[in-house]
Amino acid sequence: MSSLTYKEIEELLKTWMETKEKISELEKKCEKYKKIADKILYETDSNKILSSTYVLQRRIIQRRTLSKDNVPEDIWHKFSREIQYPSYILNKIKYK
Length: 96
What we know:
The protein is mainly α and 96 residues long. It contains two helices and two strands; from the N terminus they run αββα. The chain has helices at 6-43, 73-79, and strands spanning 48-50, 55-57. Strand 1 (48-50) and strand 2 form a beta hairpin.
């Protein structure tokens, strides 16, 4: 088990949750600004916006993927890549 006390673990998880909530709010704000900028880029038929201190460039990124349902199984096993990484899911416990 951890060398942290119950109280320290509680504080860790509480702080983590608060940080996740702040990030979520900031992501919503960023999405709002992105939509406004995209509208400006569309209206000016451009992929760049300049100010005296900032430059925004829009790039179109294209990526191809294979879906397991769309290819024969032997092709899938031959060409697919398996990547493993840790995932942390933190949720607040809802008491009734």
